[in-house]
Amino acid sequence: MRNKIAALVATTAFVAGGTLMTATSASATVDPPGGSWDHTWKTTDAAKGGTVYVEENGDVVSVCDSAADGLSARADVAVQSSSGQYDVRYHLVSSNGLGSCATARASDGGTHDLPEHVNIGVTVFLGPDYQHASTHYYLNDH
Length: 142
What we know:
Blueprint: E1 5-15, E2 18-30, E3 39-42, E4 50-55, E5 60-65, E6 73-80, E7 86-94, E8 101-104, E9 119-126, E10 131-139
Parallel strand pairs: 2-7
Antiparallel strand pairs: 1-2, 3-4, 4-5, 5-8, 6-7, 6-9, 9-10
């Protein structure tokens, strides 16, 4: 049996260009690294911690705060348009410190239901000013 990490249910606020999800209350669980995640990425400075997990089936994206560094872990999720540019669909913020997570999934509807057979860009970073940002891409083919 895999260990579970208490995750935070996200509340939704609307911002220009997408949806902002912020972690607010513990009630859901997220599989830890080594679970069924298709992709796992960290901020550029692993000692300062933000980690994003992606499960393509169900469009599950979770960003977790993985260091007690005083900075919120954040992720931007973007979809590649027909022009080749990436347009941010939504933002996630894990704001309750070390071990907290914010999660979005296709079943949340709206911008969280990512299109199939297109490239998705995920940027994981710390704080509101993109500290230690790391951007990664995958083809959403599940």
